[in-house]
Amino acid sequence: MKLLVTGGAGYIGSHIVWQAQQAGLECTVIDNLSTGLGDRVSCEVAQIDLAAESAIGQLEKLLSKGFDAVIHLAARKQVGESVEKPELYFKDNIGGLANLLLAMRSTSHHKLVFSSSAATYGMPNKDSVSEDDPTTPINPYGQTKLIGEWMSANAKQWGLRAVSLRYFNVAGTGKAGLADTAALNLIPIAIGQLRAGKSPVVFGNDYPTPDGSCIRDYVHVNDLALAHIAAVDYLGRESRPFDVFNIGTGKGASVIEVLDELKKVSGLNFQYEVSERRAGDPPKLVANVDRMEKELGLKARYGLTEIIDSAWNL
Ligand code: WQD
User: Fold this and answer.
1) Ligand 1 neighbours by CB, cut-off 6 Å
2) Is the distance from CB of 201 to CB of 273 less than 8 angstroms?
3) What residue stretches are annotated with the NAD-dependent epimerase/dehydratase domain (predicted)?
């Protein structure tokens, strides 16, 4: 089986390529290498900017080689940046997907796994979020992911079958050399602080949670990568045109619990600082993973300790 993985030179994409190759699948990567690293993957890397005018022709030429499925991750994903530069997010995330869909349509490629996000839920006031809960994104990044789902669903018009995977908080390292080098999320930021001899910062400890800090569903990047392989298999056996799956563990951990686990893993009895809340943070965002388990046949294999241990040591 041949997979085309857009964004495949990124932190998550390179883990998907690695896991796919471990499963005997052949991968080709598309990446504009703006944040991706070509040496993360041992396969062909086509340097294409999906949102560029020239992208459709380049994509059609590449797709004409014939692929069994496309996994689409290439997108901008910084929530804060999306608030500051919304046009950039709509241009790249929506425009890039539009070009990809146009090229897939013209080359008769009918299977797509779309990288979506828990950000599509916005600020749900629930203990755990299910795929049928309201999607009310509160930032342009989350809006682009929801629109991307609509675009993927509408393409059933020409026979596309798509699965959207709503990632919760992805972290950890599955293989040395594939670590998340962009310190944009709690765990890599906290590790970066410690390695610079500084204290991690808790963005607010006055939330309505047991210890006052925000709760998230941290999922190991290897579990997420395997979910993409399972989604490709699902597309091969199911006939519904569009499906959505949360990808998480179903268990929440607070910022303070994450930092306490980091103390154990690192052996450093560090202090953390507490700052004001960060705008737009929901107090709790934990996945209901019933559908992932029942229909994808997947249960997260790794918990918080393994996630943090792999992030610290690999
Ligand atoms: C987690 C918690 C912060 C840093 C984002 C995107 C989401 C998805 C995952 C792509 C929050 C707190 C953070 C720090 C802290 N990305 N924090 N100190 O915001 O839950 O989700 O990444 O799909 O779409 O929104 O992740 O890691 O930024 O924050 O206290 O130094 O850690 O306030 O409560 P988030 P995050």
Assistant:
1) 77, 79, 117-119, 167, 169, 185-186, 189, 201-203, 214, 216, 255, 278, 281
2) yes
3) 4-248
DSSP 191-203: HHHHHTT---EEE
Give the torsion sign (CA, 313, 192, 248, 69).
negative
Residues 6+ positions from 272 with CB-CB distance below 8 Å: 199, 200, 201, 202, 256, 259
pLDDT, average across residues 172-195: 95
Q: Is 92 within 8 Å of 76 (Cβ atoms)?
A: yes
pTM summary value: 0.96
Radius of gyration of the chain (CA): 19
Nearest CA to ligand 1 atom 27: 185
Query: pLDDT averaged over the chain?
Result: 97
Active site residue 272: no
Q: Domains of the chain, with CATH numbers? A: 2-170+219-247 (3.40.50.720), 172-217+249-313 (3.90.25.10)
* Residue among 207, 255, 246 at smallest CA distance from 224: 246
Q: What is the DSSP letter of 278?
A: P
Q: What count of other Cβ atoms lies within 10 Å of the Cβ of residue 145?
A: 27
3-state secondary structure of 110: coil
Write the residue with the smallest CA distance to atom 23 of ligand 1.
117
Q: Is the pLDDT of residue 280 over 90?
A: no
User: Comparing 14-23, 30-39, 248-257, which segment has the lowest mean pLDDT?
Assistant: 30-39
Q: How large is the average pLDDT for residues 117-129?
A: 95
